[in-house]
Amino acid sequence: MDDTLDTRTGWPQDLKFLIARYPREAWPGHANLGQTARFWLARHDGFRELGRALAGATAEFRAGGVAPRAFQGWFAPRLQHFLSQLHEHHQVEDFHYFPVFRAAEQRLAAGFDVLERDHEAIHAAILATVQSANEFLQSLDDADARFAGDRYAEASEKLLRQLLRHLADEEDLIVPVILDRSEEALGIG
After folding, report:
1. 163, 143, 159: which is closest to 58 by C-alpha?
2. Fewest 10 Å CB contacts: which of 43, 77, 135, 140?
3. Among residues 122, 117, 82, 123, which one has the least CA distance to residue 98?
4. First and final CA of the chain: distance in angstroms?
């Protein structure tokens, strides 16, 4: 199994037995998709949306479409919110939800191991993004702003690419468990 976040293209067949039974198209109307799962999926969608908004704002700034101070005022608090919420979200998953799902469906244990390693890789990407963002924001009025912007864009693009892969794979592993067992039976509803 290719479990490297940068090269993975989804789950291997042996971990797809529940997603085959509960494909994404069936999720919205399924009776076992309760409030906890809906909230969790909405959080994932929020991370996708804010990640793309940050990437778009960075591209617009780098293209000269936004003044440095206006960009900084919009960008800095949103990046901080995005990264801190992502870290907190992963903590809740690692220490609360993953153990519940692992215990409920032990045949998916290897997948949960992969997701936990993803969180470690994403944390490293968060640290690289923070460092490059700080350098970028500190250089907005300098001649080095372009190069600092390039470094930030590279770090943040890697983070977003990893995050998008991780979110999709995490959903494909977890939502079918919820649909199969129910939130109440899992003790999360």
Report:
1. 159
2. 77
3. 117
4. 32
Q: Is this structure's pTM higher than 0.85?
A: yes
Query: Which H, E and C letters describe 86-137, residue by residue?
Result: HHHHHHHHHHHHHHHHHHHCHHHHHHHHHHHHHHHHHHHHHHHHHHHHHHHH
Query: pLDDT per residue over 9-29, tens digit each?
Result: 999 999 999 999 999 999 999
Contact 101, 112 (CB under 8 A): yes
Which domains, from first to last, does the chain contain? Answer: 13-20+31-186 (1.20.120)
How far apart CA 163 and CA 169 sit, in angstroms, is: 10
What's the pLDDT tens digit per position in 24-57?
999 999 999 999 999 999 999 999 999 999 999 9
Contact 140, 69 (CB under 8 A): yes
Q: How far apart are CA 155 and CA 133, in angstroms?
A: 9
